[in-house]
Amino acid sequence: MSSISMNADPVDAILAQWQRERPDLDVSPMGIIGRMGRLTKYLERSLQQTFSDFGLNVGEFDVLATLRRSGQPYQLTPTELFNTLMVSSGTMTHRIDRLERADLVKRMDDPSDRRGTLIQLTDKGFNAIEKAVEAHVANEHRLLSALDEAERKVLAQLLRKLLISFEE
């Protein structure tokens, strides 16, 4: 039987091995980063399963959700989209092409810039994102159900603080 307690996770075993092999190193950051990495894999898998129910992948959901939360008339420039979603223009073009083929978005001329284009949700896209975002939020509540409300608030504050340190 392992020396790791019943409340231990696989990262605890890794930390114990490093502690045994290199007691001179403070490997505690490995615990945080390792758990974040493992959790990211579980979360991404679960999110993708939910989006697949709507014929979408994570990136396509992100485009539709960004357009939806922008408010009426649910349109943005491709530049606004890729800056918001932190992807390359090529990645954004690929996503928009796929969504346009599925009749979820349409390209329109930008009346304020003769050379520009706007990406707008179609009625079909609006209806799809309305249903997908409801399922997504329900899934996220389920994913965080191991934490009570107070724990979620503390985690949100800590993650915000860490994210701000990277984005400044």
Could you describe the 3D structure shown?
- The protein is mainly alpha-helical.
- The protein has a domain at about 55-165: Arc Repressor Mutant, subunit A.
- Helix content is about 65%, strand content about 10%.
- It has a three-stranded antiparallel sheet with strand order 1-3-2.
- A hairpin with a 2-residue loop joins strand 2 (about 105-110) and strand 3 (about 115-120).
- The radius of gyration is 21 Å and the shape is elongated.
- It starts with 9 loop residues before the first helix and ends with a helix.
Brief write-up:
Helices cover 65% and strands 10% of the residues. It has 168 residues and is mostly helical.
**Residue share in helices?**
55-70%
Classify the secondary structure makeup into a structural class: mainly alpha
The major β-sheet equals: 3 strands, antiparallel
Q: Give the ordered list of helices and strands.
A: HHHEHHEEHH
Mean pLDDT figure: 94
According to CATH, the fold-level topology of one domain is: Arc Repressor Mutant, subunit A
Q: Whole-number radius of gyration?
A: 21 Å
**Count the strands?**
3
Return residue spans where pLDDT drops below 50 for at least 5 consecutive residues.
none
Q: Helix tally?
A: 7
Task: Look at the structure and give the CATH class of one domain.
Answer: Mainly Alpha
Widest sheet: strand ordering: 1-3-2
What portion of the residues fall into strands of 2 or more residues? 5-15%
Fourth CATH level, the homologous superfamily of one domain: Winged helix-like DNA-binding domain superfamily/Winged helix DNA-binding domain
Shape: elongated
Q: In whole angstroms, how far apart are the ends?
A: 46 Å
CATH architecture of one domain: Orthogonal Bundle
